[in-house]
From TrEMBL:
Keyword Heme: no
Species of provenance: Paenibacillus agaridevorans
InterPro entries with a match to the protein in the record: GerAC_N, Spore_GerAC-like, Spore_GerAC-like_C, Spore_GerAC_C_sf
Subcellular location: Membrane
Domain of life, per lineage: Bacteria
Topological relation to the membrane, as annotated: Lipid-anchor
Protein name as catalogued: Spore germination protein GerC
Major place of residence: membrane
Length: 414
């Protein structure tokens, strides 16, 4: 065989070897029926006495392999039942006990999140799979004690998507994954769609779990999560923002104060309404406006050794409702008066929203990141760490100007 022929033969063999891995097929496949597909997880506190009565010694043995000394948690898991999840509009609907036909809710206890899931795996035959996890619900008491262990477990798991939602529940978190909402057969999907529809309607910022982790890890910013509650008819209400300092929940806002965060950050679309009373002692001159668009600009200076922020917020609004008949809104002077009053009250409102986060040292707006970006020399010399920024944030002053423009007053201006 000539040298040229040998070269061609070797080249052909090498090419075939390169294609061999592609011919292996699904060598590591796992049938969906062999997976326990987790859709939602709830995490609640549990007393040591109650937990010790329920726990299984799966990852530890008392006396020889002692468990962690930290407090125990209860993990509630919503597992999809194969073949029961609705696939189209014809199969939609919910309530009337139908939730039990689509998902299986089971709870276990453990000393840590990983320990609890080990106990869960001991009770079910299929391998736990987090690839379709959509919602993680924390109770308020768990969030206040700290979520470092929770973040660590889910961040290390490669199956967990960064587009999932983490939220803080008012009261017991397990109630939310046990609920049977009327509009959806799968409670987890109802929780997820509630938040995503709020984003589309301009009522909540986009803040998936990946964004929360990113903000929490920044030196000049803190993370926040949706603060939710379940109502009497098992519908879910977004009660505000649950804001953190490091890994600990330190405060919550009211529902209307979400618009304060959105306005300062200039998030669009806008979707909140506001009551505007033109005279303090005269409720007969009151209207309701609907903000449709926001724009914000934040300027930074160093004054007296501290960062000083000047925030300009511009709002476009429609006149939604004239609450009584004594006010004539076809007069340009009346419209200008509405714009002036709403501008003044909005400035105070935004100032109060910032102030309540300052009291807790929780900069969810990311002002510290602006200092790092625009004044890196000042940051490195005077701050340099997350802890120092948390303390400095409490002492900052903010100048806020708001400019409201009424664009539409409706068809009837009588």
């Amino acid at each position: 065989m000539s040298g040229m022929a040998k070269t061609r033969l070797i080249a052909t063999v090498l090419v075939l070897l390169l294609f061999m891995p592609l011919l292996a097929g699904c060598w590591d496949r796992l049938e969906i029926d062999d997976r326990a597909v987790v859709l939602g997880v709830s995490i609640d506190e549990v007393s040591n006495q109650e937990g010790e009565e329920e726990e299984q010694e799966v990852s530890h043995v008392k006396g020889s392999l002692p468990p962690p000394s930290k407090g125990m948690v209860r993990i509630g898991v919503q597992i999809a039942l194969p073949g029961r999840i609705p696939l189209g509009p014809g199969e939609a609907g919910g309530g009337n006990g139908e939730t039990k036909d689509t998902v299986w809710v089971i709870s276990v206890v453990g000393h840590t999140v990983d320990d609890a899931f080990m106990n869960l795996q001991q009770q079910i035959s299929a391998r736990i799979f987090f690839g379709h996890l959509r919602v993680i619900v924390l109770s308020e008491s768990v969030a206040k004690k700290g979520i470092e262990n929770i973040n660590d477990f889910f961040r290390r798991n490669p199956e967990v998507r960064r587009m999932a939602w983490m939220m803080v529940a008012k009261g017991r978190a397990e109630k939310l994954i046990e609920a049977s909402p009327k509009l959806e057969r799968v409670p987890t999907l109802y929780l997820m769609s509630t938040l995503e529809n709020s984003i589309r309607m301009g009522k909540f910022p986009k803040n998936y779990i990946g964004q929360f982790w990113s903000n929490s890890s920044k030196l000049g910013q803190e993370g926040f999560l949706p603060y939710i509650d379940i109502k009497e008819n098992e519908n879910v209400g977004v009660q505000g923002l649950a804001y953190f300092r490091g890994n600990h929940l330190v405060g919550t806002t009211k529902p209307a104060e979400i618009s304060g965060f959105l306005g300062i950050r200039g998030v669009n679309p806008a979707g909140y309404r506001a009551v505007v009373q033109l005279e303090k002692d005269n409720s007969n001159k009151t209207v309701m406006t609907n903000v449709t668009h926001r724009y914000s600009r934040i300027n930074l200076d160093i004054k007296d050794g501290l960062p000083r922020f000047r925030i300009l917020v511009e709002l476009e609004a429609n006149l939604e409702e004239k609450i009584n008949g004594e006010l004539s809104i076809d007069d340009p002077e009346t419209i200008r008066r509405i714009e002036q009053v709403q501008s003044e009250t909005s400035a105070v409102f935004y100032q109060n929203v910032i102030r309540q986060t300052q009291l807790k040292g929780s900069d969810i707006f990311g002002f510290g990141e602006q200092v790092r970006a625009k004044k890196p020399g000042y940051w490195n010399k005077n701050i340099g760490s997350k802890e120092k920024w948390q303390e400095m944030y409490k002492r900052l002053e903010f100048d806020i100007d708001v400019n409201v423009k009424i664009r539409r007053v409706g068809m009837n201006a009588m």
